[in-house]
Amino acid sequence: MSVLFTSISENNPVKPGDAQELIRPLGLTIDPSEADDFTTLLAAVHDCAEGVAALPDYQPVPDQVKYPRENVRRPTKGEQVLGQAWAHRFLIRGNPEGGNLTGKSVSLKDVIAVAGVPQLLGSDIVPSWTPTTDATVVTRLLEAGADIHGTSTCENHCHSTSSYTSAQGTVENPHATGYSAGGSTSGGAALVAAGFVDITIGGDQGGSIRVPASFCGCVGLKPTHGRVPFTGISSGDAINDHAGPLARSTLEVAACLDAISGYDGIDDKALASSQPGSTAFAEDLKESPKRLDGLKIGILREGFEHDAVSSSVKHSVLTAAQKFEDLGASIEEVSLPDHLHGPAIWTIQQRIAGAQTLLGQNTGRRGLYMTEAEQARLPWTDEGFQRAFPSTKNVIINGLYLMSRFPGLYGKTANIGRQLCDKYQALFEKYDVLVMPTTPVVAPKHGKRGLPLESLKPSMGLTINTAIFDVTGHPALSIPIGFAPAKEDDQIMLPVGMQIVGGLWQEGKVLRVGHVWESSYDWKKMQFSTDQN
C-alpha cells in the first residue's frame, strides 16, 4: 500500500540521491527513470514519520497514589550486600487488604519496569532511563499484597550467566565469596538464597532464572512461554522471553506464579494463558499427596552424558533422582538425541533477534514497546559500543553476520524449534516429567574482564540443559538437591540444582514433583564428594 500524501513539507530533509544511497549497501540500484518518484515517496514517508513521532506515546498508567514509591535511591555502601546485589533500593507497599503474597518481600530483576525507578540493565553504555509505567508483574505483585523492596542487579544487558559482568559491580555467591552467583538474574537469586528477600522476579531467555537458582541454592521456575506476561520487561528475543519467580521453596514459587500469571490484554505471547487469578498452584501443593505414586519420571540421558557435565554434578543429580522411587514414582532412562541441538538453535535465534533488538529493528509483536529505553539507547555511538561488555558486542557482530550470510536462517531455526517442542511433547505423553542437571557444574570462580574470549569463557557451556526449553517453551523448575565441591577447592561446598521439566502448561505437575522431593529431604544436609573432574 502506498503512503497517502497531498504535498511535501517545505523543510523536508530528503534530497535527490537519498533513496539510492539507502539500498546501495544491499547491492541494489534504482532505475534513473524512477529516481525522482522514489525521492518524492521517501519524502512523503518522512513527513508521515514526523507526524507519528509527534503523537503522545500510549503506556499503561500505574496507580502511584495507591502504590507510592518511597525513597528511591542507589544503595549506599552500607546498604549494599553480597557485593553489588542491589541495583536500586526503594519501598512500594503492597495491597493493605492482603492477598496470597501478603507479608512477602520481593525484589525485581533490573530489567522490569517500575515507574519512577531508574533502570540500569547492568550496563553503562548509556545513562539509566526511568520508566513511566509499571510492568504487569509489578502491579500483580502489589495487588497480591507483596512489598517490593528494590531492583536487583542483573548482568550486562542480560548477556551472561556469570555474575561479574554488570557495570554496577560483581554479585557474590551467598555460599562462597569469590564464586559466581549465576546470571543474568544474579542479584535477585543471591538476595533470595541469603534471606534478604523472600521472592525475586527474574527473566529467562536461556537459563537466566534457573542457572542462578542452581548456583545459589534456591528454587527457580521458568514457566510455560506466555504463562506470565512480559509486558514492561526488556526483551532480547520475543519467542524466548520468559519471566518467573525465584524463592526458597516451591510453595512460595507456586504462590507467586498464582499472583503474576494470566493474560493481561497487552502481551500477545500470553494470549493462551489462563485468566488472571484463576490458578491455584499453591493450594494444590498444600492439598496434594506427599508421595508421587503412579507418576513416571524420565531421566534424560543427553542431559547427563554431555562432556560438560562434571562427575560430581552427574552423581549428585542421579542420586537425588533415584529418591523419586522411594516416593512412589517410577523412573526410567530416556533418550532424545535432538536435545543436544538445543544450544545451537538457541544461539542462532538469540544472536539474530538480540542484534535486531539492540539496534532498534525488532518488530512483529503486539504488546508494550519500551520506547523510552529505545530513545535512551539509540542511535548507537562508537563510544557506547566500546563500553559494552564483550558479550553484547558479540551479539551485534554475530547477528549482523548471520543476517548477511545466512538469510532466512532465523525462520528455519524457529521451525526446527517447533519440531523439537513436538518431540518433547511426545515424551510427555509417556512421562510426567523429565529430570536432568540444571547446570553442568557447580558455581565457578568469577571471571574477569579482558579480551573477549577471556571475558566470555566463564559462561560458556552453562546453558546446555536450560536454553533448549526457552526455545520450546516448556516449564522448567530448578530445585537445590545438595552440595558438591568447588572445582578449585574440595573444601568449598556449593549447591547443585536439579531441573524438572514438564509438558506445556503443566506447571502444576512440575511444581508437585519438586515440592514432594523438597518436603521429603533436607537438601542442605546432602553433600557429594565425587571428583568433579
UniProtKB/TrEMBL annotation:
Q: Which residue ranges does the record assign to the Amidase domain?
A: 95-511
Q: Classify the source by domain of life.
A: Eukaryota
User: Which PANTHER family does the record associate with it?
Assistant: AMIDASE, TRANSAMIDASE
Q: What is this protein called?
A: Amidase
GO molecular function terms listed in the Swiss-Prot or TrEMBL record:
catalytic activity
Q: Quote any Pfam family the record assigns.
A: Amidase
The organism's lineage is: Eukaryota, Fungi, Dikarya, Ascomycota, Pezizomycotina
Family matches, as InterPro entries: Amidase, Amidase_dom, AS_sf
Natural source organism: Penicillium atrosanguineum
